């Protein structure tokens, strides 16, 4: 029975992936009006909750901010490890495993980043990127409440992340790995700290963007899609339409 | 007459300092231009308006605003009426300069370093650089798309900040406005004009 369930899941996943592959060229909106409404809600939430927290966080002494950033990044590397394997990127796997091992031990639970000093720089990888590296297109674009911009592929990836991420296993699912376990609160605390750290780091950019765009929703959509594209390609080369401009 | 001569000398000095000649090699061109801008923006003897005017002049001289305006219009540039296109370009230029001057003031006290350059074709060279903000935030990688079709006059066409193209972001923002308004460029022009006024 369990095998049949798995087969059904695989078939459903295959159909979804095939569908996205067809629409890989253009990232259309799934339901723009709803997404714009959700976006407004997220912006209000950001103004009330995240922005004040990020501004407060930015006033903390630098060592605390750097330590928090290092700690959350180090935990984030755990998700990269299975994705490095799934992508067959063994060079990056070395960077991820080495960085996590060194920073967790020598770097005092990841608060310091000695791995970077010896040249270990793991890329952040998730299941959405892994699917992208297999040729799965983004599918349509939409905005999720609280979580923000995503695509059909990346939202499935986000769910799959919680199955392949060792940190999610020991926290959300309360499993034990190497005699370590936690609970959901640990998971969401780290995710929350990651969000505040990111928001604080980008505060000036977000303010500048708010001030200088005519349609903030579309600007952020473009930025999200470009960023995902770059992360999947692990490169920032893009000739786009520039070549045809002079013809 | 004496006053008039002093006035002429002043005009000459203002122009000779702001429209400084930069190298023609794209890498040196970006390096000299950006460091010049950062120095000016950090100059305590200049007030905000003087700094903004300086950036505006630099942009008009060394950024290919016309090409940028056409690029941001996407395929619509090929089918648009020439008069509408001219109006759009006028509004875009004002919009671009207002947006640019406000952005550059944010990064006025940063350290800038050109790292390398990559000649993509006879028309384009990408210059790689990094900016170290003075507030201790992480370094920012910025790539400059320099248009070199006329080797005597290199022009900046795009800035790619941490892999995010500002021109592409602008193009996709405009595309969204156009697609929800029947591809009517006049509505986009109105929105640009509204932004300029505020």
Distance between the termini of chain A: 61 Å
Question: Runs of chain A with pLDDT <50, length 5+?
Answer: 21-26
Quickly give the structural class of chain A: mainly alpha
CATH class type of chain B: Alpha Beta
Please state the structural category of chain B: alpha+beta
Fourth CATH level, the homologous superfamily of chain B = Tgt2/MlaC
- Summed up, the domain count of chain A is 1
CATH fold-type name of chain B: Nuclear Transport Factor 2, Chain: A
> How confident is the prediction overall: mean pLDDT of chain B?
85
Q: Pair with the most extensive interface?
A: A-B, 28 and 35 residues
**What is the spatial order of strands in the main beta sheet of chain A?**
1-2
Order of helices and strands of chain A: HHHHHHEEHHHHHH
Distance between the termini of chain B: 42 Å
> What is the residue-averaged pLDDT of chain A?
87
Protein architecture, described:
The complex is a heterodimer of chains A (247) and B (198). Chain A is mostly helical. Chain A is 68% helix and 3% strand. Chain A has helices at residues 2-22, 32-58, 62-86, 90-105, 114-117, 127-133, 152-164, 166-171, 184-201, 203-212, 216-233, 242-245, and strands at residues 141-144, 148-151. In chain A, strands 1-2 form a two-stranded antiparallel ribbon. In chain A, strand 1 and strand 2 form a beta hairpin. Helix content of chain B is 57%, strand content 18%. Chain B has a single domain (2-197), classed as Nuclear Transport Factor 2, Chain: A (Roll). The model of chain B is unreliable at 12-17 (pLDDT under 50). In chain B, a hairpin with a 7-residue loop joins strand 2 and strand 3. Chain A binds chain B through residues 62, 201, 204, 208, 211-215, 217-219, 221-223, 225-227, 230, 236, 238-243, 245-246, and chain B through 67, 70-71, 74, 99, 102-103, 106, 120-121, 123-124, 136-138, 143, 145, 149, 157-158, 160, 163-165, 168-169, 171-173, 175-177, 191-192, 195.
């Amino acid at each position: 029975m369990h095998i049949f369930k798995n087969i059904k899941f695989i078939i459903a996943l295959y159909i979804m992936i095939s569908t996205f592959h067809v629409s890989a060229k253009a990232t259309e909106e799934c339901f723009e009006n709803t997404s714009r409404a959700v976006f407004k809600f997220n912006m209000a939430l950001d103004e009330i909750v995240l922005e004040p927290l990020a501004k407060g966080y930015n006033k903390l002494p630098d060592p605390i901010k750097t330590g928090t950033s290092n700690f959350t990044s180090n935990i984030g590397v755990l998700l990269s490890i299975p994705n490095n394997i799934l992508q067959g990127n063994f060079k990056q796997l070395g960077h991820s495993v080495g960085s996590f091992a060194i920073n967790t031990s020598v770097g005092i639970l990841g608060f310091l980043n000695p791995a970077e000093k010896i040249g270990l720089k793991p890329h952040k990888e998730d299941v959405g990127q892994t699917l992208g590296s297999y040729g799965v297109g983004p599918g349509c674009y939409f905005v999720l409440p609280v979580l923000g911009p995503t695509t059909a592929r990346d939202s499935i990836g986000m769910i799959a992340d919680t199955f392949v991420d060792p940190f999610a296993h020991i926290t959300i699912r309360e499993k034990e790995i190497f005699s370590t376990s936690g609970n959901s609160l640990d998971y969401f605390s780290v995710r929350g700290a990651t969000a505040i750290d990111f928001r604080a780091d980008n505060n000036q950019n977000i303010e500048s963007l708010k001030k200088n765009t005519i349609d903030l929703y579309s600007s952020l959509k473009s930025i999200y899609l470009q960023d995902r594209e770059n992360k999947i390609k692990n490169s920032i080369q893009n000739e786009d339409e520039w070549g045809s401009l002079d013809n | 007459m004496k006053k008039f001569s002093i006035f002429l000398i002043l005009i000459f000095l203002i122009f000779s300092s702001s429209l400084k000649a930069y190298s023609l090699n794209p890498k040196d061109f970006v390096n000299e231009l950006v460091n010049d801008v950062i120095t000016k923006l950090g100059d305590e003897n200049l007030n905000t308006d003087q700094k903004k005017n300086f950036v505006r002049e630099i942009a008009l001289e060394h950024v290919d605003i016309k090409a940028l305006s056409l690029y941001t219009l996407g395929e619509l540039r090929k089918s648009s009426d020439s008069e509408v296109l001219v109006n759009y370009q006028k509004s875009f230029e004002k919009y671009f300069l207002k947006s640019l001057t406000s952005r550059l003031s944010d990064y006025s006290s940063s350290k800038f370093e050109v790292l390398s350059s990559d000649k993509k074709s006879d028309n384009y060279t990408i210059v790689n650089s990094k900016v170290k903000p003075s507030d201790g935030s992480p370094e920012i990688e910025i790539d400059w798309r320099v248009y070199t079709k006329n080797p005597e006059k290199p022009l900046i066409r795009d800035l790619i900040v941490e892999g995010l193209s500002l021109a592409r972001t602008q193009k996709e923002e405009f595309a969204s406005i156009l697609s929800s308004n029947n591809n009517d460029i006049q509505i986009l022009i109105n929105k640009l004009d509204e932004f300029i006024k505020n």
